[in-house]
Specification:
Elements lengths: L11 H7 L2 H13 L5 H11 L8 H13 L3 H13 L6 H13 L3 H15 L5 H14 L4 H10 L6 H13 L3 H11 L3 E6 L2 E6 H7 L2
Amino acid sequence: MIKKVGKREHHLWKRRDSAGSGQKALHLVRIVSGLPNEKEAVYGALDKWTAWETEFPLIAAAKALRILRKRNQWKRVIQVAKWMLSKGQGATMGTYDTLLLAFDMDQRVDEAESLWNMILHVHTRSISKRLLSRMISLYDHHNIHKIMEVFADMEELGVKPDQDTVRRVAHAFQKLGQEEKQMLVLKRYQSKWKYVHFKGERVRVRADVYKEDNA
């Protein structure tokens, strides 16, 4: 008789890397929240936070970024994200998205553009809809003329914009006095349907009909 031995799966990496990551993240948030707004002080504290780690605590750092983002601590988000990237860690679309949002909220458009140019250069044809939409949102707040550049990249990459992005692009064309392009964008990308709440229920209606009835 041949006795089959069942597979024994080990998840040592997952357990070791995620163990206590929530507490580590909170500890990191407490550390940076109590520091002066100086790069040297923040980076020094972050280096101490990892001094005794055998491997970079990426999960804990990512959780700390999410906590800081929820608390709208944009300067700290920028500092922690930049520090992670300087260590060669966390270079993901999620980190870039959070960093671009923080730059937007902290009025640091030049730095956002520098990061965006790097993303375009390095990732070229693998840029996510999320990041493209983030840059259009940023330029909607700070420089509507540049919305067209990002939207052109979006179309070239074959990325279909979400409805919020369609609204921003159409509004930008309208403000720039280019109504024909505004209508073209709406005709090409605006959803024919939208959801509204009617008598306590979520109902799908044609967007153009609902607009006419509520004008």
